[in-house]
Automatic annotation (TrEMBL):
Cited Pfam families: ABC_tran
Protein name, as recorded: ABC transporter domain-containing protein
InterPro entries noted in UniProt: AAA+_ATPase (IPR003593), ABC_transporter-like_ATP-bd (IPR003439), ABC_transporter-like_CS (IPR017871), ABC_transporter_sub-D (IPR050835), P-loop_NTPase (IPR027417)
Domain ABC transporter stretches: 72-359
Family: Belongs to the ABC transporter superfamily. ABCD family. Peroxisomal fatty acyl CoA transporter (TC 3.A.1.203) subfamily.
Taxonomic placement: Eukaryota, Viridiplantae, Streptophyta, Embryophyta, Tracheophyta
PROSITE patterns: ABC_TRANSPORTER_1, ABC_TRANSPORTER_2
GO molecular function, one term: ATP binding
Alphabetized UniProt keyword annotations: ATP-binding, Membrane, Nucleotide-binding, Transmembrane, Transmembrane helix, Transport
Length: 360
């Protein structure tokens, strides 16, 4: 059994609007964290462990059951609202590599809160979550209100108390409405894993100072660079992969600057967010109705792309067609405050009667 040091993450879900700098967001989170330490006796423990490359594959490339890589372990987790109303009771499950999980349930049952707990954006309740991530380089990641990344550099390293050690690689949270940064189309794709320095900005963008979010002084909390950025050819390929190649002619190339949240439809924004996933290749992706604005054909293409990229994902969704892209399903029902019974079920997709109905 792998021992992993525990870290209490106390981040309240109060900052959901874009801030001028990742450091500014850190300051708000730190303030909320300290307040949470004073106001709450019980917190959800969020633990991180490093996993190494897998060995011992079968001759056909498949992994023996005993060698399967665990990515997520949820233990006796109870998720609550800030007013201490219970959303999910005593939840326990494990996710292994490629065990793509679909989370379903009625509105208000706590599905999004569960994903935010795993991402470190929600701490109301109690229990423990262990996330196992692979290292992808020594990098402090840019943190935003709706995209979270973690990296663990040592199994013996304590992650901390949410101060100064939040920005890691390995887990990315994708909301229903992606965050669009102020800047170029290139920057939309590189965010949040790579920030774009001024050397690659268009002359117009340099002169207009139109991208304050990414063009501030080289404060370690504002500008972080990965050692190996995708090339322009990589970005063009990803745009074509997610069926957004038409944006190049529509907006005059990768270095054009627009108010992207206004000029792109929600469906285009969701496809662009999947482009970010394909470029960053996190260990685990948390998808909160991230294809809700897409037709089934585009939805299928995006799920096939991230599967082929080796990304394990947990999705919230309501379409029955989503079952075919997942191996596990977690059903959450509305909690009954008068009952002590668990309000969830976790099973293989093949065992779910809804899955059988969808195949007919």
């Amino acid at each position: 059994m792998t021992h992993c040091p525990k870290a209490v993450i106390s981040i309240q879900q109060t900052v959901l609007t874009p801030l001028k700098c990742a450091g500014e967001f850190d300051d708000v989170l730190d303030s909320n964290s300290k307040k949470g330490d004073q106001d709450s006796k019980e917190k959800i423990q969020l633990n991180f462990c490093l996993i190494s490359s897998s060995n011992g594959l079968h001759s056909n490339g498949s992994m023996p059951l005993s060698k399967r890589v665990k990515l997520l372990h949820v233990e006796h987790l109870t998720v609550q609202t800030p007013s201490e109303a219970t959303l999910i009771k005593d939840l326990s499950f494990e996710i292994f590599e490629k065990d793509h999980l679909l989370v379903t349930g009625p509105s208000g049952s706590g599905k999004t809160s569960l994903l935010r707990v795993i991402a470190g954006l929600w701490s109301f309740g109690n229990g423990a979550i262990t996330v196992y991530v692979r290292p992808r380089g020594d990098l402090e990641m840019l943190h935003s209100p709706d995209v979270v990344s973690y990296q663990v550099t040592s199994t013996n390293e304590t992650i901390g108390d949410s101060t100064g050690r939040r920005n890691f690689e390995g887990v990315i949270f994708l909301p229903q409405k992606p965050y669009m940064v102020l800047g170029t189309l290139r920057q939309q794709l590189l965010y949040p894993t790579w920030t774009e320095d001024s050397d690659n900005l268009s002359d117009d963008a340099k002169q207009s100072d139109s991208v304050p979010f990414l063009m501030r002084a080289r404060d370690a909390r504002c500008v972080n660079e990965r050692s190996k950025k995708p090339t322009s050819e990589d970005l063009l390929q990803v745009l074509n992969d997610v069926s957004l190649g038409h944006l190049l002619s529509r907006f005059d190339g990768l270095d054009s600057t627009h108010e992207w949240s206004s000029v792109l439809s929600l469906g285009e924004q969701q496809r662009l967010a999947f482009g970010r996933l394909l470029l960053s290749k996190p260990t685990l992706a948390l998808l909160d109705e991230s294809t809700s604005a897409l037709d089934e054909a585009n939805e299928a293409r995006l799920y096939q792309l991230i599967q082929a990229a080796g990304i394990t994902y947990i999705s919230i969704g309501h379409r029955r067609t989503l079952y075919k892209y997942h191996k596990k399903v977690l059903h959450v029902s509305t909690a009954d405050s008068t009952s002590t019974q668990q309000n969830w079920s976790f099973k293989d997709v093949e065992e779910d009667p809804i899955y059988d109905f969808s195949k007919q």
